[in-house]
Write a structure and sequence with these properties.
With 259 residues, the chain is an alpha+beta fold. It has a domain of 133 residues: Umud Fragment, subunit A, CATH 2.10.109.10. The chain is built from 7 helices and 12 strands. The strands form 2 sheets. The chain has a 9-stranded mixed β-sheet with strand order 5-4-6-7-12-8-9-10-11. The longest helix has 12 residues.
């Protein structure tokens, strides 16, 4: 009689085996691996047993933990390719067939004829197919960023992302955060810390069932909390039982095209 456990191991797809191999290589439990990338131990177990395939956000998190060429296996499962990273980093020098994203080498610094070599640690940050709206606009109605599909990715220094596995990028619609953050900008959002008491004065992404995702600055005055725009032409929103918003992420940094 065939061993059912052995049969399960043989029949597992490559991605399920790669996840368990990565976890064992890192000497992590399923709970520890899940904590690193924002998923539960039960979810990691389902992935390793081929009961459920990771979403794009999960594959990118796994790729960020991997070393060597293994990272590309996970990122390509998320629909991303090595050329996407190369386009994100200017004048990138590649060595061998693939380069670990954690140890990319940028050979040109600044402008002019001088050249300087420096190594920089980078992580892949997913650019989600989501729009976060400023005041007066309506954003996408997604309350959990990790549930969103991935459009592309952005390469960023590790010191820009204190919690890489909880960091994602979103596009901004509207100008209530101008001149700081303007229409069409891309913001990097960290969903690790959502405790309002620690976010006073910070720019945050909030979700409201009627307004979707919005961007503003959180202000706390005694028992009153306010979502405040940068642009004085827009009104602030006082959080209350009538207007209850969930803070889903803190904004870390933003980028935009020059005009």
């Amino acid at each position: 009689m065939a061993d059912p456990i052995r049969k399960l191991k043989i029949s597992r797809p490559a991605w399920a085996k790669a996840i368990s191999d990565l976890r064992l290589h890192l000497k992590l439990s399923q709970a520890d691996l899940g904590a690193r990338i924002g998923f539960s131990a039960m979810t990691i177990s389902r992935w390793e047993r081929d009961a459920q395939e990771p979403p794009s956000h999960g594959y990118i998190g796994l790729g960020n933990l991997a070393r060597g060429t293994t990272c590309w296996f996970f990122w390509e499962r998320a629909g991303l390719h090595s050329e996407d990273v190369m386009r994100a980093v200017p004048r990138l020098q590649r060595t061998a067939d693939s380069v670990p994203l954690q140890n990319l080498e940028i050979v040109t610094a600044g402008s002019g004829p001088k050249r300087a070599e420096a190594k920089v640690n980078l992580v892949a940050i997913p650019l989600l197919k989501l729009v976060v709206a400023s005041h007066g606009e309506k954003g996408d109605n997604v309350s959990v960023l990790s549930d969103a599909p991935v459009e592309n990715m952005v390469a960023a220094p590790t010191d820009w992302c204190p919690h890489p596995s909880y960091t994602s990028c979103l596009r901004v619609r509207g100008n209530s955060m101008a001149p700081l953050i303007q229409d069409g900008f891309v913001v990097a959002a960290d969903s690790f810390e959502t405790d309002r008491s620690a976010l006073d004065g910070k720019i945050v992404i909030a979700w409201h069932r009627d307004l979707g995702l919005t961007i503003s600055r959180l202000r706390r005055y005694d028992r009153t909390e306010v979502l405040q725009p940068e642009n004085a032409q827009y009104e602030a929103v006082t959080l209350s039982a009538k207007h209850s918003s969930k803070i889903v992420a803190k904004v870390l940094w933003w980028i935009g095209k020059a005009t």
